[in-house]
Amino acid sequence: MRKSSWLIFYLLFIGSLIGVNSWALSQFERESSLILNRADTFFRMMKSKDYRGIWQLLTEQSKSIIIKDVCKFIKKSSGKCDVNIVRSSFKKGKGLARDYWDAYLRYFNPDIILNQSSWNIKYIHADDAKITIKYKKAPNPVFLLMKKENGSWKVGLAETFFNH
Questions:
Q1: Where do runs of H (alpha helix) occur along the chain?
Q2: Among 148, 151, 113, residue whose Cα is nearest residue 132
Q3: How many CB atoms lie within 10 A of CB 59?
Q4: CB 150 within 8 A of CB 60
Q5: DSSP secondary structure string, 67-105?
């Protein structure tokens, strides 16, 4: 090959690398935006007490843990729990779900996350991601786990904050 052919090949090769890197960066930016937006929506739903919406944005694992915890509490007080009734209540955002989330929000203020914290993507994998949330008065950040389920990003509330 002549020098001019090598130069053309080299320039095309470098150009393709730049194009691939640019495409990967834009994919990362799009996915980051989707993840951060989903988490933001979740905490805004908490603030507005949209309990049905909160339930829709939780991971299946978080839903399972919450239902299990609620049933454990009910069994202690009344002796039996129908998981299907508890699940239905949370899907509708009424009854037990309202009681649960009202109690949760007595101890957790979503405004701390929404208005007094900085957010950054720690990592994104195919099916999970972590958001670094740094409250302005806290010495260390927390890491919110997000999982992709059926093509949609969900909040791993229980996986992140519950002690299981």
A1: 3-48, 51-57, 60-78, 83-92, 96-107, 110-115, 157-161
A2: 113
A3: 22
A4: no
A5: HHHHHHHHHHHHS---HHHHHHHHHHT-THHHHHHHHHH
**pTM of the predicted protein model:** 0.81
Of residues 154, 159, 161, the one with CA closest to residue 37: 154
Q: In this model, does residue 156 exceed pLDDT 60? A: yes
Task: At 49, give phi and psi (nearest 5°).
Answer: 60, 40
For 84-110, what is each residue's pLDDT tens digit?
A: 999 999 999 999 999 999 999 999 999
Could you tell me the two tokens for 95? 């009854």
The one-letter amino acid at 163: N
Q: Who's near 161: CB < 8 A, 6+ residues apart?
A: 142
Could you give the CA distance from residue 105 to residue 48 in angstroms, rounded to a whole number? 11
